[in-house]
Every structure is written in structure tokens, then in C-alpha cells.
């Protein structure tokens, strides 16, 4: 999976989780989306883990400052054996 494919997959998840549309770009972060609170964050992470069949390690997601860094993490983890 490359970055564009990961953003497309995330867009589908965001469309399901959020009531208001969120157009994903690599620069967007939680502070840019009023509806993105701690409970929504957990829902997003669980949905992403299921969609891409990986489990994030403790602290990995919190280190991502925006969608671009989160996508890079997803791509990196998908490439691990």
C-alpha cells in the first residue's frame, strides 16, 4: 500500500466515523476537525486497525502529528514482515 492508497482507505473510514464530511490531506490533524475528540480518535484507530489488518504499538499513533505522518506509519507497518 502506498500513501495515496492509504489516504483513500482512511477517507472511507473518516466518512463512516464523522457526521460532517472531512476531506483528508496529509497536513490535516485532529485540531483541524471540531468533531475529532478523544472518543472519536479511539473509534478511528480501531477502525483503521481492522481495515488494514495491523495493530499499532503503544505510542505510535500519538507520535503522528498529522494524517501524512499517520499514513506513513500505516505504510511502514504494512511493509513489516
Mind sketching the topology for me?
Layout: H1 3-17, H2 38-52, H3 60-63, H4 67-79
Helix pairs in contact: 1-2, 1-4
Walk me through this protein's architecture.
This protein has 81 residues and is mainly alpha-helical. The protein is built from 4 helices and no strands. The chain has helices spanning 3-17, 38-52, 60-63, 67-79. The longest helix has 15 residues, at 3-17. It is globular and about 35 Å long. The two termini are 14 Å apart. The relative contact order is 0.21.
What's the short story on this structure?
This protein has helices spanning 3-17, 38-52, 60-63, 67-79.
- Put simply, the count of helices is 4
> Could you spell the SSE succession in H and E letters?
HHHH
Q: End-to-end distance, in Å?
A: 14 Å
| Content of β-strand | under 5%
* Helix vs. strand class: mainly alpha
User: Gyration radius, to the nearest Å?
Assistant: 12 Å
Biggest sheet features: none
State the low-pLDDT regions, or none: none
Shape: globular
Instruction: Report the strand count.
Output: 0
Give average pLDDT, whole number: 93
The level of helicity is 55-70%
List keywords for this structure.
81 residues, mainly alpha
